[in-house]
Write a structure and sequence with these properties.
alpha+beta; NADH Oxidase; globular
């Protein structure tokens, strides 16, 4: 697949066939991720392949997206956060670059992927996977063969509405975000993360998925 086609046709996939993904494909994707740019060429990423159901269940039970349970395999991307540039969080940028390579590679190989940050707290993930404290969990990437063909998702804005030369454009569309509603949502998310695991498992996960999690066609 040509690069431009892969970029423009890649879609997040949340519904997968009950079909395992071969280790050779997982290793090929991880190798592509390893060739991403990184700040100061540190290459501080690590990739934890998660194919055991009990581990996927632990992620969900501790606050992760319920979608993770049904993904054939996932890759938890972590990055060494011992950077001098905390202002721009370059460890997160570098880990994200690796994830983009991985996602485009998956599209090229006929796999579906979904970049998830609906996860347990970093502290919980470190405990589950025995991750040293100086590694920052970046995201969990679900992988599998798409259950159905992916649907096109149009871009919100055309090029003129997102690009300018040399200065911020006053003509760009203004995003309407209510600061009070945003604050309330942030507080609710904080409360959710502080909620004990057994309450998340019994009450919140299914309820949140049905009532509050945004639904997508793919």
């Amino acid at each position: 697949m040509e690069l431009e086609l892969a970029i423009k046709t890649r879609r997040s996939v949340r519904k997968f066939k009950n079909q395992p993904v071969g280790r050779e494909l997982i290793e090929k994707l991880t190798d592509l991720a390893n060739y991403a740019p990184s700040a100061c060429n540190v290459q501080g990423w690590k990739f934890i392949v998660v194919d055991k159901q009990e581990l996927k269940d632990q992620i969900v039970d501790n606050g992760g997206s319920i979608l993770i349970k049904n993904a054939p395999v996932g890759i938890l991307v972590i990055y060494d956060k011992r950077t001098k540039n905390l202002i721009y969080q370059d460890h997160i940028q570098s880990g994200s670059a690796a994830i983009q390579n991985l996602s485009l590679g998956a599209a090229d190989l006929g796999l579906g992927s979904c970049w998830l940050c609906h996860l347990p707290t970093p502290k919980k993930l470190r405990k589950i996977f025995k991750i040293p404290a100086y590694y920052q969990p970046i995201a969990f990437i679900m992988l599998g063969y798409p259950e159905t063909g992916t649907k096109t998702v149009p871009r919100k804005y055309d090029l003129k509405q997102i690009m300018s030369y040399n200065r911020f454009s006053d003509d760009w569309p203004k995003e309407k975000i209510n600061p009070i509603i945003l604050l309330v949502k942030r507080i609710l998310v904080k409360i959710y993360y502080l909620t004990p695991r057994f309450i998340k498992k019994i009450l919140f996960n299914n309820l949140l998925d049905k009532k509050f999690v945004k639904k997508f066609d793919n």
